[in-house]
Amino acid sequence: MRVKIIHRYFFRELLISFVLSITAFNMILMMERILKFSMLLSGVGASAFDFIKIIVLVQPQLFLLTIPMSLMTAVLFTYGRLNADNEIIVLKAAGVSFSALTKPVFFFGLLCFCASAFNSFYLGPTTSKALRQDITNIIINKSPMAIKEGVFYTLFKNVVVLVREKPTERTMKDVFIYDKRDAQRHWTIAAKDGAINVYGEGGIEFILTDGEVFLPDNNSITKIAFKSYNMIINFNPESNSQISELTPFEILRRTKVTVGEERISVFLEFHRRLALPLLVLIISFFSPAFAMLSAKTGKLGGLSLAMVVFLAYYSMLIYFEKLARAGTIPHVVAGWTSFVILLICSIYFFRKENAR
Length: 356
Hints:
This protein is an alpha+beta fold and about 350 residues long. It contains nine helices and five strands; from the N terminus they run H-H-H-H-H-E-E-E-E-E-H-H-H-H. Strands 1-2-3-4-5 form a five-stranded antiparallel beta sheet. A hairpin with a 2-residue loop joins strand 4 (about 205-215) and strand 5 (about 220-235).
């Protein structure tokens, strides 16, 4: 009964530290994305609710990294504090083994593994797709309202729009458009009247009347007059990353239709989707033993050492992935070498501490 009470006590401490850690890590990683999304959406007058919804949809993409980081932080902080306060020593003196002390970590790690696997296989791809669709819909539906009279509108990539007058939300007069989507030839369009509508699922259509198109070519300019001209802009926001919208099984199927460096990148993404959830289980073995071995460094010393280990793991992962893209090593070796190294270290530290 006392062991069960101890387990509940440890589990509660782990849960509190984990919630605080994952909140802090997600906020840190969100800073850059919040800045990017604010620059992207502020120009179209997105509401506070739109920003909140986008921030929520981004979280599952971060969980793949922050769940292992938060678990390690929670274990190192909890066991480091208990060890520094001599609570671990008292429990061991009372006959509680190291394996019994780490049972809450294994159970908590199993829950984190299930959450990480669910995020990798379903939640992450689903929310990535919803994020892309929401950003596209916000910009497409609110772009007509964002275009102001006498103001250069530059939200569309490589397209600048200027209008002198807007009688209504979707109609314009004296329209000037500078289009440099074609790197070889930049178009300049001037029209007396225009309208803006949604085109398909991911585009905007400018319907221009009574105007001219100017096409520069070396030392000359070709002028084409038109009565009616439709200009279509297919909008693809920067956050659109098709690979993030695929489940691991869909990623594996994509490897059959890709070649060269792209195929290697797809394989590396597949290995990451599998390795990062499994990394949670490895951390469940590694962190308690490492906390005991680093007891002399103080309450936060183990946490600092664990962050160094975590950074070393990702540095090795990125290094081996670059070698795979360069064709030096197979993609399987690149995707799993860091994992195997950490697994060996985890077994060593756990056996060493358990034998004490």
